[in-house]
Design goal:
The structure is a homodimer. Chain A contains 6 helices and 5 strands; from the N terminus they run αβαβαβααββα. The first copy, chain A, has about 190 residues and is α/β, with parallel strands linked by helices. The first copy, chain A, has 2 domains: about 120 residues, Beta-carbonic Anhydrase, Chain A, CATH 3.40.1050.10; about 40 residues, no CATH class. Chain A is globular. Chains A and B meet through α1, α2, β2, α3 and α4 of A and α1, α2, β2, α3 and α4 of B.
């Protein structure tokens, strides 16, 4: 068993030993809000936003982007589980600022090409030289944080399945200080009707 | 300003006041692993798996499903930020077990139909009666947890952009006890080559 797996299961045993009344929490978020934020390891939304178990939905992906899948999750969060306010939180020093779709495509193309001839550990996507997967994926990179928060709030705000009366707040988390910094244009764009 | 927004910003101020050395953490996850899990409010992956800030990527959506967007995030996690082990963690009493695509479509259809004539708060998707959005979305519902964990591990394992040498572990989080319960068939399917 890997060291990581052992460590995770040991930590989990500690958590369950002091689980208290948490087993009785209901399914719908008690504080009726949701946060969409980045998967970045430095971000702990429960800590930076003060969440206890049972409080709020947390949706995370690379960048904290308003992808179709994030919107699927938000619509379920609202429609079936009753959230009524949403946050979009990107952050400083995000990995998504460090590359472009072109860079990612080149990286993957080179990995995929070598997959059939060496031990790179990658599947061979196309019989060794065909059009590899990943050429047409949008990686949702971030050239500018304030702009990406604004765009994502706008995308959610104008999505046909999103109700007009949910306010959407746009913030950037500063990894140097832990502080949530508002993006006023995004919060403005996300105002409830 | 909403009560929730005030509470979140107050909690954030408390967090930043005692931020310590966390501002110096590097971008790549220190423990080189990633967890894909559900957005459910009762789940706190940092607590149930023992993560400190900087340790691991956390990807969350409705159900903890291996959607294209989750796989986008995992590929970035590996390729650019160096994770080498992944967990897929679904959970008992998941909201995704409580409905089907059909139910969701009917719910949305009825909301969208009324959007143009009452104050339901929904956008009108199609001029009041056209084909509404959401008819063709797969909501990634879960008829059976063990099966969904297995399917998602298999989907990641066989994805052409996922390297063969990353082990993928399949678990179910029990919301009554906090315990991580292995899905052996999933972990087996997720074995590294």
């Amino acid at each position: 068993m890997s060291t990581i797996l052992n460590e995770v299961l040991a930590a989990n045993a500690g958590y369950t030993a002091d689980f208290g009344d948490k087993g009785k929490l209901p399914m719908p978020p008690g504080r009726r809000f949701a946060i969409l934020t980045c998967m970045d390891a430095r971000l702990d939304p429960a800590k930076y936003a003060g969440l206890a178990e049972g409080d709020a939905h947390v949706i995370r992906n690379a960048g904290g982007r308003a992808s179709d899948d994030a919107i699927r999750s938000l619509v379920i969060s609202y429609k079936l589980l009753g959230t009524r306010e949403w946050f979009v939180v990107h952050h400083t020093d995000c990995g998504m600022e460090t590359f472009t779709d072109d860079v990612m495509r080149k990286l993957l193309r080179s990995s995929l090409k070598t997959a059939s001839v060496d031990a790179s550990g990658w599947h061979d996507a196309g019989g060794g030289g065909g059009s590899p997967e990943g050429e047409h994926i949008s990686w949702l990179t971030i050239p500018n944080q304030e702009q990406s928060v604004l765009e994502d709030v706008q995308r959610i705000r104008t999505h046909p399945l999103v109700p007009r009366d949910i306010p959407i707040y746009g913030y950037i988390y500063d990894v140097k200080t832990g502080k949530l910094i508002e993006v006023p244009a995004a919060t403005q764009a996300g105002k409830a009707a």
